[in-house]
Amino acid sequence: MTHWSLLGRRVLAIGTSLAPLARGPLFGAAFELADLERLADLQPATVDLVLIDADAVDSGALGEAIVALAAMGAPPPTLMVGQRLATGLARAVMRMKHADVLEAPFTDEQLQAAIYSLLDGAASEPAGSSGQGSRCWAVLGAVGGAGATTIAIEIANALAGRTTKEHGVCLIDLHLADGAASAYLAAAPAMGLAQFGPAAERMDAALLAAFTTPISKGFDLLACPRDPLAFDQVSKEAVLRILEIACEAYEFVIIDMPRHRRPWTLEVLSGADEVLVISELTVPALLAARALSEEIETALPVGRKTRIVLNRLASRMFGPTPSTAEAERALERKTEASISSDWEAAAASVNLGGPISQYRPKSKIVRDVAVLIDRVLGVADRRAGWSRRAA
Predict the structure, then answer these.
(1) What pLDDT shows up at residue 320?
(2) What architecture (CATH level 2) is domain 135-379?
(3) Does domain 10-123 have CATH number 3.40.50.2300?
(4) Who's near 377: CB < 8 A, 6+ residues apart?
(5) pLDDT in tens, 293-346
(6) Is the pLDDT of residue 352 over 80?
(7) pTM over 0.90
(8) Whole-number Å distance between alpha carbons of 122 and 160
């Protein structure tokens, strides 16, 4: 499952027997129940999904409606369900680009899987048909103090320098109780998620703009004011909804993730294109990075891999600090990149407020982050499971 939620998705359901779904597997969607004639009035881009109960309507009329729907310039994803699916109807539906059939009886999980697959397929249209997809990277530390927030900021700032879009990069600090990104950037946090509770469907692009703190050209921040109760007060739906809206609006979304698991952690990580685990070169940190990466990979879909980044790599000839080769033996895998230690540059950035490149553009950290970005962009493929549309 790669979409974060169905909140706000516009679903047109044909057949009164589908009504209970609005309170079950389709809870949170903008659910419209109608008869077959509604398809004749359907306009392009007015719904996100058409759901049809083939058992509830006349097969001849349904066949004509499907032909008309297929003739639409860009028909919405369509799922037809039923116990008596005529071969001709099924073939007519499957001729559409984003369409599927599901034989009853089916479970809620099977229905959701079919719907998510259709929505993902429609969202992965290339530029010019459904817009350019955004990229979402999640960054989290293997241990506290590993420098994950600093790396997330530098990644976001470097990507902003590569984009020409007004809404190029959004850094989202999900350390809801005690996030430091806004302090590091000398910015005022403006994201207020606690007030929405479960009514996250009310959140939209206009609200996103109100929550945004501009940092520099093409670089915006979404961060909550410090609040020790935030993790208890902010609903899972609100977190997932704000991420979904951000991924529709920005070319790149960088998420500064809390290390400890929250109710929404796995869904956020599943929705991200890349998961970067930041580790120091100490034995406890390396062991924690290995364990955390294994935990994440076990929970995510088969084949998804994290990328481990070694932070604060110092040149050494002698001493107890592990080398990169020794670190990789402890991790039992190759690392993605190494970020050099440059305490003076990092301290200047934190104390003055702003990215390291703003005060020390020639810092080894800036150079190494650029190498990391090049490596991830060079090998990152658009995962078939999840793609987002730019606004």
Answers:
(1) 62
(2) 3-Layer(aba) Sandwich (3.40)
(3) yes
(4) none
(5) 999 999 887 667 899 999 998 765 445 667 888 899 989 999 999 999 999 999
(6) yes
(7) no
(8) 27
